[in-house]
Task: inverse folding
């Protein structure tokens, strides 16, 4: 067996071992590395496992002290400063308090960021995926993919420009402050429960504001169904066409709006068919016009409504 202890005390062969000499022998023992390396290796270390450590506050004559693995690393990580530490795998550190700095280009894939503020908690040029930022202040940077079901921002202040290049914003609540530039495709409804929405008169149509359009605005003409009683839903068919294939009557239109204008283009499909009108259609002199006869003949009727009746005039005999 290899000698695992080195001693500075020597004894003569067949000599007498005195008590002082034996004491010196024990005091002068040095441990070879083989005493440690020949032991069975542990496959895992528990927090309650203990190590021997030379306490710097003690003298060389004092015995070493025992320390648990938990106490060793807890004190070492709390007191010391570590530069360029290389960490792999998942790092769980509980609830963070105080200021935390995340290095440039760091990626946080899960977890909660409480009160993240640039300048104290740094996220410069970082990517946050599936993170929750409660009460966060993001004053700069880019949120690459923002999905309401995974990345949730429930409070905080957003200044500068927010770029959402992909993902879904489910509910956007801005109770204070200004959203400077918001460019997106809206797939649902926007509800403004309080206050007033303002927009540039050069980019959108606004109620109560005189505007001059620089492009054509029109109603797409829809088709009514020919028959003995012809229905006309004015909310869906402000400009409508009718190819008349039989004698018919225009029923009382639904959804009349006070002050609205409606147009009906009637063309004889075959031969000469007659067209009668509900009593809520009003004509000059109280007499409805007679439809122009002959296949392919077209008459155009224009109406203004007071919400109950439609007051009409006819332009006839187009071919």
Result:
């Amino acid at each position: 067996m290899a000698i695992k202890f080195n001693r500075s005390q020597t004894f003569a062969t067949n000599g007498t071992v005195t008590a002082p000499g034996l004491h010196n022998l024990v005091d002068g023992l040095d441990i070879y590395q083989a005493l440690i390396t020949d032991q069975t290796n542990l496959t895992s270390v528990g927090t309650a496992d203990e190590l021997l450590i030379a306490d710097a506050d003690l003298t060389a004559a004092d015995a070493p002290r025992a320390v648990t693995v938990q106490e060793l690393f807890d004190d070492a990580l709390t007191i010391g400063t570590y530069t360029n530490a290389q960490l792999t795998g998942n790092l769980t550190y509980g609830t963070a308090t105080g200021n935390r700095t995340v290095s440039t280009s760091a990626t946080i894939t899960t977890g909660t960021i409480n009160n993240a503020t640039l300048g104290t908690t740094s996220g410069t040029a970082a990517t946050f995926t599936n993170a929750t930022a409660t009460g966060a202040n993001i004053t700069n940077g880019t949120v690459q993919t923002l999905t309401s079901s995974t990345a949730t921002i429930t409070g905080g202040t957003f200044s500068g420009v927010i770029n959402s290049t992909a993902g879904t914003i489910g509910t956007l609540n801005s109770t204070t402050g200004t959203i400077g530039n918001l460019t997106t495709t809206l797939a649902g409804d926007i509800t403004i429960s309080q206050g007033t929405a303002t927009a540039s008169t050069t980019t959108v149509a606004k109620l109560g504001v005189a505007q001059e359009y620089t492009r054509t605005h029109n109603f797409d003409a829809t088709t009514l169904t020919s028959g003995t009683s012809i229905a006309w839903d004015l909310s869906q068919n402000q400009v409508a066409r009718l190819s008349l294939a039989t004698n018919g009557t225009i029923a009382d239109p639904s959804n009349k709006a006070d002050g609205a204008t409606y147009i009906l283009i009637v063309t004889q499909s075959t031969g000469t068919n007659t067209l009668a009108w509900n009593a809520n259609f009003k004509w000059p002199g109280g007499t409805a016009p007679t439809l122009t006869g002959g296949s392919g003949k077209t008459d155009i009727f224009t109406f203004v409504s007071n919400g109950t009746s439609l007051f009409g005039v006819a332009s006839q005999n187009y071919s």
Remarks:
- The two ends are 121 Å apart (CA to CA).
